[in-house]
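Table S2 (text version). Query chain:
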Amino acid sequence: MNFPILSSLILLPSIGALFILITRSSDKSNYSGSKYVALFTSFANFIISIYLWYIFDPSVADFQFVESRVWLKGFINYKVGIDGISILFIILTTLISSLCIVSVNNTIKIKLKEFLISILLMESLMIGVFSSLDLVIFYLFFEGGLIPMFLIIGIWGGPRRVYSAFKFFLFTLLGSVLMLVAIISIYWINGTTDIVELYSLGIDVKYQNLLWLAFFSSFAVKTPMWPFHTWLPDAHVEAPTAGSVLLAAILLKLAGYGFIRFSIGLFPVASENFVPLIYLLSLVAIIYTSFVALMQNDMKKLIAYSSVAHMGYVTLGIFTITQQGLEGSIIQMISHGLVSAALFLCVGVVYDRMHSRLISTYGGLVSIMPKYAVLFMIFTLAAIGLPGTSGFIGEFLILMGAFKKNFLVATIASVGVVLGAAYMLWLYKRVVFGLLINKDLLKMLDLSKSEVFILTFLAIPTLFFGFYPEPLLNTINVSISNLIDTYNYKVSFLTK
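Corresponding structure-token output:
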């Protein structure tokens, strides 16, 4: 296929953003026009990504739809391509971006054009991350995503938005400085930053530990893993609803993808050495942040801490280096992208009406917002991994992979499932059930048509893949098998 479909996916949102930028916005009609342009652009990208999935060949382990152009001769090539691992994250990105644009109707009152531009630029950069086949290009897209998210939190966020935006920016930027040094080091060691070439060449064992730690410094902050997670609750609390959705659904997945693509793919011997460290940090994240979530009275903070716990399962599954563990981690990331996005949107619905995120403000919503109660229940159950939801498939496979590798680690991780059920069900009980004490709640209206549309659009794949995960598993199976086989071969060969 000669048509540059991946470059089109990357560029189309940016073209839409440029079009919105150059149009005048002196009246409301132009603001509406900006929304339609942004929505059309993002939805078109979603359709293209679905088509890409349709024509993708899951039986092939190699990268497909590869495009390569010389950028800096002898140093950097613009090279993109996808395999079974990256295609699902691209679809998730285009879907969530489209829904975020639909959701701005009620939430963004000022500088709407600029907000839409930020979302579209974010979409371009995230697709670039998931399709990059050059370390430098990956780094540019990876760090570029900081800028629109920094603006989204800093301009449209809550009262402490500037503090939270700078905390988010500095944490993630400082974590990535070492990764940049590592990328430059890899170029001087191997003479290339092409990921496919590096896979075949391999990296000298004596450098792997240091390089692995450099990449880890960036991915651990971005995941975020304990104890680098403190920026996330602040960022979520202050970010507007669409910002929280993008942050939880897409941005956190960059690190999980990075662990699979680079930590395991490029540094197999070092990954083997650091498995105990990852297990320890993952277990602390699962157990500790679950207890912290139980103590929260702010709905956004509770869901933010639950994200840290869920990403703890992801890192645990990745570093089991088993078929089940890795497949479970990818499905868990896709599921968490859908479910966490929906949960933050559910919080946004009641916040828009009452301007409070405190759990104590609510109670008895089931009697005045039945549609909201039903949809909120679906996502709550998905978050705790109830069978029949996508959350169950991911967690089950991760725990299966963990039990194969370390019984004690898997047992401790299983406790997190119980704790997850505790804080999510307790949240639902306090908000939706109980007595309707706050009489101001009687003024609240049930979900609007656009809110029903967004939440239903997220509920359908959450339930569908819970009952029928085959399309996801078929897409990633061969790529994961190839990754594990290559990993095991390199570990056994290089450690002789």
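Notes on Table S2: The first strand starts at residue 64 and ends at 72. The chain has a mean pLDDT of 86.
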